[in-house]
Write a structure and sequence with these properties.
295 residues; alpha+beta; 2 domains; 10 helices
């Protein structure tokens, strides 16, 4: 009996102390013409272990609460220990009462160059930036956790965005591309700056309302939920009017365009003529999706 009690306690400990992420890392090195090099397999395995085995927060995550995410790294060039690459970062979270996972982030970072020696340890220190590879991965980990938290509780992601901001500040002196205000309007710096800016607080409200009071109530009342989501998306128009062509609007629709088109093309009909006008105004680059909405 004592053995089973100890076993149950052990299993419970594993469940309640699980790390935050369930990440899949893929290294695509076909462009280098050296895709069969062992270093790429080693890097893929090392990054997967680094992201999934590091304890990133002081919060308790049960195994089933781990955040599903992916890092698709495309290496375009490798010379010695120097890698030129891009990384497609994605994350999703479950919708209450369903088997559906809704996309939260779908971000393509073209400013991802790093040095790596096979088998080198990957260790994150928030107070230093010895490795751009580690800094970029840690930055996206905190951004993913922050965005996920924002969908469950209003403003709950800010503390994680602040941790990502600390990484930005620490990495800047090393001169890596993507960490500086001079690195363009679609950089890691810009994403973090906007997520924490008072000018874009509507984005946090939209992330919460869209998911918690919209998608998560879909099982109970699909029509009402769709109406709520339509109203929530309209809040982005205010942000757009104040800051036309702002980066966060693009980030939102890069993740959500397909989902929104699918959502409003079937099921109980709601009046979305105003919504379509808003979508075509604030996200014109996604017009191919909006054309597919039938009502």
């Amino acid at each position: 009996m004592r053995f089973y009690t100890i076993l149950i306690l052990f299993l419970c400990t594993i469940t309640t102390t699980a790390q935050e992420l369930n990440a899949v890392v893929i290294i695509n090195a076909e462009q280098t013409g050296k895709a069969d090099l062992q270093v790429f397999k080693t890097l893929e395995r090392s990054l997967t272990e680094f992201i999934n085995n590091t304890k990133w927060t002081d919060r308790t995550f049960k195994t089933q609460e781990k955040i599903e995410c992916s890092f698709n790294i495309i290496v375009s060039q490798v010379e010695g220990n120097n890698f030129n690459a891009s990384v497609q970062v994605g994350s999703s979270r479950p919708v209450y009462g369903t088997n559906y996972y809704t996309p939260i982030l779908n971000f393509n970072d073209q400013q991802f160059n790093f040095t790596y020696t096979e088998f080198q340890p990957l260790i994150f220190d928030p107070n230093s930036s010895d490795s751009n590879l580690v800094s970029v991965m840690a930055y996206y980990v905190y951004t993913i956790i922050g965005l996920d938290a924002s969908t469950f509780k209003l403003g709950d992601g800010d503390s994680f965005f602040e941790k990502a901001q600390q990484i930005v500040t620490t990495a800047q002196p090393n001169g890596g591309v993507g960490w500086s205000p001079q690195d363009g309007n679609q950089s890691r710096y810009r994403l973090n700056e906007d997520l924490l800016s008072a000018n874009f607080r509507e984005f946090n409200a939209v992330m919460y309302s869209y998911h918690r009071t919209g998608l998560d109530t879909m099982v109970a009342d699909k029509k009402r939920s769709k109406q709520k989501i339509a109203t929530t998306i309209a809040q982005l128009e205010t942000m757009y009017k104040n800051r036309p062509n702002n980066f966060l609007t693009r980030v939102f629709f890069d993740a959500k365009a397909q989902e929104i088109a699918d959502m409003f093309s079937g099921g109980p009909q709601v009046n979305i003529s105003d919504l379509l006008d808003i979508l075509n105004t604030i996200a014109p680059t996604k017009s191919t999706f909006w054309k597919n909405i039938k009502f």
